[in-house]
Amino acid sequence: MLWRSPSQQDQALHTSLINAFNHLGYLVSQGEEAQAMATLIAASECDEVGLGTSVTRKGKRIGATKAKEILTLFKRIPYYAQRGFRHFEEIQFFVDGISKDRISDISCSFLKSFLIDFTIQQCEKIGIPREDVNVLNVYDYRKNTFETQNGLALPVNPINGRPLLFVPKRWLRFVPWINYDEYFSTYCPQDEISHKPDELLRVEVLDYNRDHYGVVDAYIKAKERTFEDCKNDPLFSQIPVTSAKRKFALIKKLPSGKEDNADKKYENAIGQLLPSILYPKLDFTQEQARTDSGVSIRDLIFYNTASTPFLQDMHNDYGSKQITLEMKNVAEVGREHVDQLNRYLSEELGKFGIFVTRNPMKKAILTRTIDLWSGQRKAIISLTDEDVGQMVELFESKQRDPIDVIVKKYNEFRARCP
Length: 418
Fold this sequence. Notes:
Helix 1 packs antiparallel against helix 2, helix 12 packs antiparallel against helix 13 (about 260-280) and helix 17 crosses helix 18 (about 405-415). Helices cover about 50% and strands about 15% of the residues. It is globular and about 80 Å long. It is α/β, with parallel strands linked by helices and about 425 residues long. The protein has 2 domains: about 10-230, no CATH class; about 240-415, 3-Layer(aba) Sandwich (Restriction Endonuclease), CATH 3.40.91. The strands form 2 sheets. The protein has a 5-stranded mixed β-sheet with strand order 3-4-5-6-7, sandwiched between helices. Strands 1-2 form a two-stranded antiparallel ribbon. This is Restriction endonuclease.
């Protein structure tokens, strides 16, 4: 995304990124492999950004053996020895264990100085609170080394106090433009490598690539010719309409309760369906479990984009920076369910919650939710099978937005409140 960007700033950042990576090759050629290894190992994780698959946002750096394997490319492949890398994503075609998360970490590490400035600018622009922190492994292009910068005013993780860095959305792609999977399926001469291409292992392909750089080079040049197709994309993709209809058909067939894991199947199906049909009004969803008095409860937590008047009202009236949907595969929502969700809704999470369940609430339970609004100004509504079906119909027809069903249910709830 940096390389193909029309922005001169992005292009300059790409050049500095490649120069920093190719400097490792220069160090190797000068007999300073130890320094090159130390720099590469330091660059292999960027915890402050948190891209990748680590649940804790704290990843594991590569070891000395893997770093040496990467640096060996500057010696083994003549093109890199003479000219260096054009796109350092190419290392994934030669070294096992290098994938998109490692590519993003190395990029962010070498660009961390810019990301610090960008994060400070965004915080000042929209008023995000900051604290003075120390940031490790900030690359200094004048010295070609990583250093610690102290006393930087950055946002921090409220749980552990570690600094956070933001990344421009225009840089983000779920899969790198240059990636191993596409190369393997489209450009790799599988029959030439193995008589049984169906059983071809990644390690065999990597070994072949090291001795046949021309194949990789042809793929890179092809990707460069089609750079206009390289665009940023959301980190979440909607399921197609046909899949949404099939998913709802599966939900309708499931019985309420836990028999034959019906509750788990219901949660999984809803967890895949609703994020798709509510996107992008509700975004960056995550499915998580919580325990309330020993009972495991499954939630969908959506980021409130506040992109519609309704979502703005939820943010302003109930403090809902996130929208919580609790999935209950039960014949009817009971008082204990309402009490559980009531305890979960808080100042931090917001005071608006939604049950996703099979049938409408009985009158006594509905009265209890109204009493919660009267006494604590908490709003709890429910989406039934019928409501979810209507949302799927709107998703298919495109005549209205599926979130309008939630708006309707909330308006019906408020009409009952005193």
